[in-house]
């Protein structure tokens, strides 16, 4: 198979969002303004520059089409996640949604499975429901708070929390697999409540990871959180994946994941 052009194999912590799978960053930059965002550092860009309007990566759609065709021809069935350095459906930026729509349509034309990770799942399912194929494609979101005031403080330009829950509910009604990224954990009590609600609402699984590279992280008793998290996961029975940075704080012998990933498949 020829070298891929824009779809790629993520490495490091990013790979934990799509173990054994692929990723694609068709948009670069994000206007959500999340205070915990890691992407500016990864891209070596100033936060104020990254937090402006997103931009379409150069020749993104043509590259996706060629990569999707090559992957399909090679019999590669790996999942592709959209995306790590932008929200596929940036809030208050509808001019960029058609680029995501086109990217997903291309993936579908080549029968390529994809996951959309967005803080705007309601827009994704309302605008582009027919581009998602139940049993193949996945819609996921990030929720780390239950308090809307905290969300506004940490994610000032992102969609509100209830719209994310509603988007996942509609995705479930449509028959799509869903999951929630509970990362970074900023307020341990709120993170645990997110997991409880996810279990109650039938979310497919949660991925949980700690806050890193922020002064607030040093104020959290991560060992105590690990104990509490283990209790909530056992109590709810929800499927989960614990990020590697969190695993040292979990009780000894506690399973780090209950979901089968592409790395686990023969």
Features:
10 strands; 266 residues; alpha/beta; two-stranded antiparallel sheet
Describe the protein:
The protein is α/β, with parallel strands linked by helices and 266 residues long. Helices cover 35% and strands 15% of the residues. It has nine helices and ten strands. The strands form two sheets. Strands 1-2-5-6-7-8-9-10 form an eight-stranded mixed β-sheet. Strands 3-4 form a two-stranded antiparallel sheet. Helix 3 (60-73) runs parallel beside helix 4 and helix 5 packs parallel to helix 7 (161-174). The longest helix has 15 residues, at 222-236. The chain starts with 6 loop residues before the first strand and ends in a 24-residue tail after the last strand. The mean pLDDT is 94.
